[in-house]
Amino acid sequence: MKIISVVGARPNFMKIAPFIRAIEAHNRVASEKIEHILVHTGQHYDKTLSQSFFEALNIPEADVNLHIGSGTHAEQVGYTMIAFEKLLQKERPDWVVVVGDVNATLACSVEAKKELINVCHIEAGLRSGDMTMPEEINRLVTDRLADLLLTPDEMSSENLRKEGVEEQKIKFVGNIMIDTLEANREKAAALSLEEILENNAVNEMYGQPLKTYTLMTMHRPSNVDHKEILEPLIDFLLNEVAASSPLIWPVHPRAEKQLNAFGLWDKVYSHPNVILLKPVGYHEMLKMNRGARILLTDSGGLQEECTVLGTPCLTLRWNTERPITLRKYGGASVLVGNEIEKIRKAYHETLALDVQPLRPNLWDGHTAERCLKAILDI
Ligand code: UD1
Hints:
Layout (H helix, E strand, L loop, with lengths): L1 E6 L2 H20 L5 E6 L10 H6 L7 E2 L7 H19 L3 E5 L3 H12 L3 E5 L11 H12 L2 E4 L2 H9 L7 E3 L3 H14 L3 H8 L13 E4 L3 H4 L2 H18 L2 E4 L2 H9 L3 H5 L4 E4 L4 H10 L2 E4 L2 H10 L3 E3 L17 E3 L4 H12 L15 H11 L1
Parallel strand pairs: 1-2, 1-4, 2-3, 4-5, 5-6, 6-7, 8-9, 8-11, 9-10, 11-12, 12-13
Helix pairs in contact: 1-7, 1-16, 3-4, 4-5, 7-13
Uridine-diphosphate-N-acetylglucosamine binds next to α1, α5 and α11.
């Protein structure tokens, strides 16, 4: 059997690492080996967003890099399809495996189906219901086309059933991100926070020992692409969050670009309690997440990691495709959108809470094996 699996952007790397490991384990014992080709579309190309994750998670170098790079959604999807079509015609795999919801996920699943190749989607069935999110469009199209839809939780399986997906295509396997989290917990715990800050510092180093801190990440267009949204958020973060405890912020390139464009970069950069970092590696983020008193983020993956780690999380979005991570379902996160009054209220309420780790069904570190088995069973 020949499988091509595809990654494009940062959140894909932690999902593909355990899947590759599962193939390697299979090939060590099985008489019929799987031929595996790893394709990187090259959507994320900075060392901090891409190569450093390959190294940290022991992902073998991609067999093929399509070097798509930055661009509009249409450019990224279009260039990926053109390059991927040629590759599929040359390789003719039995399966194309896509993960998550980035532009690579959409482009490669469309192209695979046009070449009459089976598509397996790992992390299928997530729905935010928000059609202004590029990722929601990517999820819908990918799931409409996929032949095997591997879901992280029962709610996602139910979403697919409601959309009319045939039962035999849906398989609940658990959350593959948690395989990576469990495999890397100890290594992350052994890191020194001071060294992480020192090695990734963007602004003046914070002078005192860190006892407690807030952690944040933000990159979604809905938060960073409009000055009238970003500016009040920044004012709240600087004047109210960073005023009471140090704020660690690894800055995504999109956020940095927009802060500069809106003339907000200098005040963030020069705030004495804001610790600006370059985008950090997987273990570094895991270490900082575990130690944070609270995390503010618009990332879906971090919401899930907070749930398993028990870190109180404010999700800077109005909706989520991952409701299982919400406090009302026992998780660690609460949706606060980008309205300051709502964020302020939730922030103070959350500081007083004792959030316990939650392990949803099958978030057990063995999802990748179930994913591979589901493919082999067909
Ligand atoms: C993408 C994903 C999103 C994911 C996020 C995590 C899509 C539609 N979105 O969003 O789901 O949560 O990655 O990081 O696929 N840039 C660099 N260096 C890089 C890559 C990008 O400087 O290595 C710059 C680009 O020029 C662009 C900005 O960062 O200005 C955004 O990159 P882009 O790939 O468009 O999407 P993300 O916002 O990263």
